[in-house]
Amino acid sequence: MRTRTPRLVAAALAVAALAGCSDVGDAADLGPRTAPGTVTVGSSSSAASRIEALIYAKALRTAGTPVETKLGLGPGEDAAVAAVERGDLTVAPALTGALWERYRPGAAQPTKAKETESENPRAQWDAQFVALSAVLPEGLGLGDPTLALDQPMLFAPKAAPAATLRGCEGLSGAVAVPDGSPKDVSARYGCATGPVVTVADEAAAARAVADGRAALAQLGTLSASAADLVQVADPDGVVPSRAVVPLVRRDGLTVAQTKRLSAIAGELTTADLAAMVVKVESGKRTPEEATDDWVAEHPLK
C-alpha cells in the first residue's frame, strides 16, 4: 500500500493561516467535534463519479460509519457538487480544477512554482489544494486529492519517440480533437503543434492516430480510446490538474471519518479509475462490482 506524505497536512495548515482560522486543527483535518449520524454520499450520472462515490462510501463503512448513497443525481459533476452545497449530501466526488472554475471563474489556476523541477504531480496538486481550500464556500471542505486525473490530455502512439510538454518535444503534426473537446490546443498545452483536426468522438481521434492521419489525439484520461496510446508527459504541470477529491460538509464528518476518506488519496490512480470506468461502461461489471474488486486489492485501512 502506498503511504502518504505529510505535505498536504502542511498545506492545510497554510490554508488556516490564509483564512485566519483560530482552530488550526479543524482546518487541517476538516473535522467538527460532534459525531454525525448517517453520512450521505452521492454522485453525478457518470460512471467515474458513481465509482468514486462508492469507493468513498466503502471507506467510511469500513470505519463503522452508517452510509446512505444517492447515485446518479444528474449529468455533469456540478449535480453532485450542488447537492453538497445545499446540504443534501455529506460527501461527493469532485475535481480540483472544476471546483476552482466554479468558485473562481476566469481566474488563473494555481500551479507549482516554475523553478520546481520535480516530476511528482503532487507539487502542482498541493498548490491547488491550498488555494482551493481557501476559496470554498463556508461550511465546505476537502479531503486529500487522489492520484486520479479526469481531464483532456494529449496522447501519442506508443511506438513514437517520447513526447513531453517540457520543451514541446515530439509534438509536431496534426492533433485529432473530438467534437466538444477544447480546441485551443496551442494555448492549452503551451506548444505549437500541427493543425487541429476535429473528429466525431474519442474513438475517431484514436483511429486518426492509428491510421497516420494525425500525430496526436486529445483524449480524456479515463477514456477507453486511450488504451493503445501513451499520454504526453506534463512534468511542469502546464495543464491545471483535475484530480478526484472528496468535497465534504465540514459539519457532517468527524476527524476520523475525514482521515478515512483521505486514506484513498495515495491509492486511487488514473489507471485504476480508467480501468474501472471501461469495465462499467462496457457492461462487464457494475459500479458496485468494479469497486468491490478494487477495494479487495486496496484494503482501505
From TrEMBL:
GO cellular component: ATP-binding cassette (ABC) transporter complex
Source superkingdom: Bacteria
Extent of the signal sequence: 1-27
UniProtKB keywords: Signal
KW Signal (keyword) present: yes
PROSITE patterns per UniProt: PROKAR_LIPOPROTEIN (PS51257)
Keyword Nucleus: no
Pfam families documented for this protein: OpuAC (PF04069)
Domain ABC-type glycine betaine transport system substrate-binding: 38-114, 202-297
Single GO term (MF): transmembrane transporter activity
Protein name per the record: ABC-type glycine betaine transport system substrate-binding domain-containing protein
